[in-house]
Amino acid sequence: DAERSAGLRKARRFARETTAQLDTQNPVPHFRLGDMLLERGKLEEAELEFVVVAGLTPSDPLVFEKLGDLHVKQKRYTEAIGEYNQALGLVKDPADRARIDKKQKQAEKQK
Question: What sign results for the dihedral spanned by CA atoms 64, 107, 32, 18?
């Protein structure tokens, strides 16, 4: 419906403007915006935000997992596998490792 679409466009514009005004070295608003965009199917925009986060926090496995998820949605399986590998090299928690490993294996099957 048109009213809902207009509201979503307004919310996205506000989120982008707010993110741009925040401390550019803080990865949290970029991650949240990227996650929101990913959920809404705005994959190219989400990727830009996650790349910023990866640059700011290169030791955070979650951002590489999100990039892997994004690449799977784009059917870019080779890149997804690479992102999941990056995440697996950084992750410490066994439950997180198992989740990411499962995603990586699923991406390999899709390839």
Answer: positive
Tokens of 37: 């965009």
Least confident residue range of 9-13, 21-25, 52-56, 96-100? 21-25
| Dihedral sign from CA coordinates of 47, 49, 62, 82 | positive
The single-letter code of the amino acid at 31 is F
Separation between Cα atoms, residue 111 and residue 94, nearest integer Å: 26
- Dihedral, 109, 73, 57, 59 alpha carbons, nearest 10: -10
* Count of beta carbons in the 10 Å neighbourhood of residue 57: 16
Q: Are 84 and 103 in contact (CB under 8 A)?
A: yes
